[in-house]
Every structure is written in C-alpha cells, then in structure tokens.
Amino acid sequence: MSEERDNVIHVAFSRDGSGTRIAAPAPLAPSPSDAPKPARRSEDPLADLYGTAEVAKLFDLKESRLRSWARAGFITPSAAVGKRQLYTFQDLVSVRAAKALLERGVPLQRVKDSVAAIRRTLPTITRPLAELRVTEEGGSVVMRDRRGAFEPTTGQLVIDFEVESLRDDVVRVLRTGPSAEARRGAYEHYLEGCRLDEDEATFERAEAAYLAALRLDASLGNAHTNLGNLCYRRGRVEEARAHYQNALRIDADQPEAHYNLGFLSLDAGDPAAAVVSFERALASDPSFADAHFNVAMAYEELGRRRDARPHWETYLALEPTGSWASIAERYLQPR
Known about the structure:
By secondary structure, the protein is α+β, with helices and mostly antiparallel strands. It folds into 2 domains: 182 residues, Serine Threonine Protein Phosphatase 5, Tetratricopeptide repeat, CATH 1.25.40.10; 136 residues, Multidrug-efflux Transporter Regulator, Chain: A, Domain 2, CATH 1.10.1660. 53% of the residues lie in helices and 10% in strands. The longest helix is centred in the middle third of the chain and has 17 residues. The two termini are 24 Å apart.
C-alpha cells in the first residue's frame, strides 16, 4: 500500500485478504502545499480564498446548498489549491447576490441569468473591487463604483449591497479567530507533534504538542486527525472517533478524517457505515488509493461485488505494484 498519505490509519491484510492488523505509520510533517488552512490567509480578504464551510458560515447557508449550486453549474468555486476547489472574493459577491434574490422570491431562472451576468462582468472590472455597489434601478441590475455605473443585464431585480460591506462581513465573521502570532505558534506545536509521533516512546509528548496547538488555534483540523491516530494506536478508539469528527467540523471535506472514520466502522464490523465514510473521502479526493481499496473491501463484505469492482480497478490503476495489488487482482478474477 502507499505510505505517502499523512493522517490515515493504515491497515495490513493477510495473504488471503482476510482479517485486519493496524500498521499505522505516524503522519509526516506536511509539505507547504499540505499546510493547514490558516497558513493560506492573506492580509486582504479580497485576495483570499475560502472553503465551502467558510462561505456557508459567512452567509448562513447550508454547505449542501452550496455544493448543489456548484454541481448544477450555478455558482462554482473558481479557484483551486491542489484538488480542492475554493471560492474567490468575486465568487462571494455572486453568492451574496443569489441569496438576496432568492430570499426575495425572484424566479430561479432570473436569478441564474442575473448571477451569470454579474460573474461575466466582475473579471472585467479594473477598478478597486471594494468600491463596487450592486443595486437595482428601474428594473435592471446596476453595478457602480465611484467613477461611474454599468449594467450587466436587465430584469426586475431587488438587491442592493455594497461590496465593501461584504469585505467587512468577511473580517467580522471569518477573521475573529486567533492572531497571526497564535497561528504561527500553533503550527510550530503541530509540527513538533508530527515529529514526535513517529516513536511510541514520545507519544505522550506528541499528544501534548497537538493539544497545545489546538489551544492556540482551534481551527487546526489536521491536529485533530493526528490526535485521533495517536488515540487509536493507544487503544482509545472512541477518543479517536471524536477527534476525527472534530476535524470534519472544521473542514467537512477532509478526506483523511472521513477515511479514518470509515476504517473504524469497518474494524467494528459495520461495512455499511464504512462505505458511507470511504465514499465521502473519495468525493473529496478521487485519487485516494487506500480509500478505493477499503471501500471495495466493505462492498465485498456487503455482498455488493458489482459496486466493489470499479474500486478494485481504480486501486490497481493508482497502485499497480502496491503491496495490496495481489489482493485486488484476486477479487477481480471470475468467481
């Protein structure tokens, strides 16, 4: 199996593919691209990127509604960091406009047309975005700043907000956490935990380091995931589960936490629950080889060979020489 992914419980199978034995290598110190979300914050909210959970919190929307809008192509996050899709500040303008229109009872198609017009127009604005105002005048959407007005579309719309006020809302709702100094200190403790949890002799110190990180910055979801791994390896399964769940409260799309919860369910003899968690991990990261292997195993336990097969195939495509490849190949043989 791959040893490249941090923050996951690793499992070893016997030669016949039965049974489970934990072989949980400690998470490695993350590369810069794997740094926790706070590390990507810029000083200016207009230049920052925002996850689905943050946008849902900012506008008091359900995350499922934002994902539904994205799947429908209505408002999709327009930036990406690795495989993760993120919202720009310009996307926030569209979300706020759509929410206001829908709350006023504007027909959905008209809202879609209006938001599409706004999204087409925003990238052409060379003037400071924070000066922009979106309003309705005489039955048409009008976008104006201090130097003039322009109309992206027409229709009976009823929205009126200043983009500057949206910037202020971002600061008020999403920037009320720890100071930059506290975040830096938290991340140092997090890295110390990553170094210490490689050796059973320093598990206590690693746990203390992760807890110190979370005291400084409660938004470090990776620290919860690593704490969960430590708890599991020390036989504290329910504590591990709680930490994985906390990680997902911080970042609902974290694939490692979903995977680990799936493994706990599989280990407890509940393959149906395991399938749900593994599939959520794969929704966040379709290239997660171990999740493909284990969801296939869970489907096999449920007698759902047809559902298992594409995951066996995907696992082999991702890990053709992995230590579990022979198991996957055997399950793909006619039976």
